[in-house]
Amino acid sequence: MSPDKGSGKKYAQHTKLTKGCRTVLDALEGVEDLSSAQDIYGRLRLDADDAPGLTTVYRSLESLVGLGLVQAVDLGDGERRYELVRPGEHHHHLVCDVCKKSVHLDQCLVENLEEAVRANYGFEIRSHVLEIFGVCRSCSKRPGKS
Fold first, then answer.
1. How confident is the model at residue 86 (pLDDT cuts 50, 70, 90)?
2. What is the reported pLDDT for 56?
3. Which of 117, 119, 124, 133 is the most buried (most CB within 10 A)?
4. How far apart are CA 11 and CA 88, in angstroms?
């Protein structure tokens, strides 16, 4: 489930955020794909000459992740990607090894596993991450697929 349009502005009004954080939230609004800090920085530079610097973008993203307004996703290539989420919400993704596109899973597939882990091991789970890597339908149909 993706956040409602305008959610970054809505959150910015209800939470004490720096100008950099508000700017990054605004940049993530309406973006359907996962975005790297470099992607966000590039978008901001196109929009305004006085856009925050790359360091500010990275720091703002980390603050927003800590607040639960943005989710960081590791696609296995060493560069984190980010997406806007509602507080308390998280997404899981399917990631194509060939074209690198990612798809949001519509549901959390780990909740039943969490219950079993709690029941069987008495382990209190704080959070989880699930990214599934493989080859998407489009790439698997291509001749000479990897």
1. confident
2. 95
3. 117
4. 13
CA distances from 33 to 36, 39, 45, 84, 136 (A): 10, 11, 19, 10, 16
**Domain ranges for the chain:** 1-86, 92-146
Is 1-86 assigned to CATH 3.30.465.10?
no
- The CA distance from 53 to 57, in Å, is 6
Tokens of 79: 């560069």
What confidence score (pLDDT) does residue 4 get?
44
Please check the confidence at residue 1 and state whether its pLDDT lies above 50: no
